[in-house]
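Researcher: I'd like a candidate sequence for this fold, 388 residues long. If you have to choose between options at a position, lean toward the conservative one.
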């Protein structure tokens, strides 16, 4: 059983409210383009000045493309003008990179998950608290228009009292792991790499998880590269991660629900995400996206046949691919001296839920989730700094 961790925030940073947060990006793979483009051109509170990569030629290419400086990670850590590091490397590398950045006095935002081991995440949280530094973690898609619309609907009582939820999502791991080799590494399984989107969305909407019972399995430990034109096409490779999971979750507020993840599907990602209430049902979109339609299903009479479907709409803010909003929102939190929304408390809690799903599959019983986190505040239109 994991020991509880104190997740109280401790922010003693007193920033200049007119300052931009000077930022460096670590990791120059495919996902870095949308981050760099958005952080440079969309958000006015970030000043991206440098990038680093294990492969220096990748850093050089990104630096030339975005007009920033290519350097080593050590050079980033030694540069006292850099306030924040954004880490976009595979999950197994996160712990050491985050630890070094915190020890170097940098705020850190990382791609999901924070780490692949709960004990490492606990250590990083304590280190960030000791240093008085911010630590944030993706996914930040819950800050997009779709999930913010859903959150407002729930908070406004549109569906009444929430009674349950249903999540059922699929993915074609054979295709994705054929070209994304990091999915074959620890933290690349269906729960850690994909389920984290749904669990983060769920916690941001309804609150913390109390306990979980799950069955987790890997259907095929040896798979074949199905992606023509990629290195190793039609050759077998080892896939040691989980590919399927089915779980029952009880939230701290007593709401019950199910989570089913299937990575052994022929189709691209399909999302079934339903939240049931005493007055209606919310049908949500894929939480791996920022936008999408949120539908309210309700009845307008006492006859069961009279079902009404309407679109829930409060905001269009960040309905496009807005990866980078997490670092930008954290930068604004630093400048304002307040907690950030894609924060370490929620990231740790979601990581513990996943870890306890794994433990439950081994033990055959319900496992308690000891940590708790607050639901992040709704992102109001116009709050986040953006370029004119």
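Model: Candidate sequence:
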């Amino acid at each position: 059983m994991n020991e509880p961790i104190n997740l109280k925030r401790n922010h003693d940073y007193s920033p200049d409210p007119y300052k931009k947060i000077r930022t460096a990006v670590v990791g120059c793979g495919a996902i870095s383009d949308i981050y760099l483009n958005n952080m440079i051109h969309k958000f006015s509170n970030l000043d991206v000045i440098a990038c680093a990569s294990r492969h220096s030629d990748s850093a050089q290419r990104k630096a030339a493309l975005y007009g920033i400086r290519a350097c080593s990670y050590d050079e980033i850590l030694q540069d006292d003008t850099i306030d924040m590091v954004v880490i976009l490397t595979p999950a197994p590398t996160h712990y050491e990179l985050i630890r070094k950045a915190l020890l170097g006095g940098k705020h850190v935002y990382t791609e999901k998950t924070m780490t692949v081991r709960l004990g490492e995440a606990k250590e990083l949280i304590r280190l960030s608290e000791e240093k008085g530094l911010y630590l944030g973690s993706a996914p930040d898609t819950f800050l997009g228009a779709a999930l913010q619309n859903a959150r407002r609907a729930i908070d406004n009582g549109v569906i009444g009292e929430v009674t349950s939820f249903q999540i059922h999502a699929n993915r074609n791991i054979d295709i994705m792991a054929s070209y994304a080799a990091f999915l074959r590494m620890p933290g690349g399984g269906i729960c850690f790499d994909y389920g984290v989107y749904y669990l983060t969305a769920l916690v941001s909407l309804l609150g913390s998880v109390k306990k979980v019972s799950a069955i987790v399995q890997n259907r095929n430990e040896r798979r074949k590269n199905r992606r023509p034109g990629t290195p190793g096409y039609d050759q077998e490779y080892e896939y040691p991660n989980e590919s399927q999971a089915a779980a029952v979750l009880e939230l701290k507020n007593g709401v019950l629900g199910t989570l089913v993840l299937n990575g052994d599907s022929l189709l691209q990602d399909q999302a079934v995400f339903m939240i049931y209430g005493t007055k209606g049902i919310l049908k949500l979109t894929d939480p791996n996206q920022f936008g999408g339609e949120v539908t309210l299903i309700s009845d307008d009479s006492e006859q069961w046949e009279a079902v009404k479907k309407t679109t829930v709409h409060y905001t269009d803010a960040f309905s496009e691919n807005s990866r980078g909003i997490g670092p930008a929102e954290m930068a604004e939190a630093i400048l304002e001296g307040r907690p950030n929304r894609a924060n370490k408390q929620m990231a740790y809690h979601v990581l513990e839920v996943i870890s306890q799903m794994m433990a439950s599959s081994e033990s055959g019983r319900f496992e308690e989730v000891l940590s708790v986190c607050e639901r992040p505040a709704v992102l109001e239109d116009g709050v986040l700094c953006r370029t004119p």
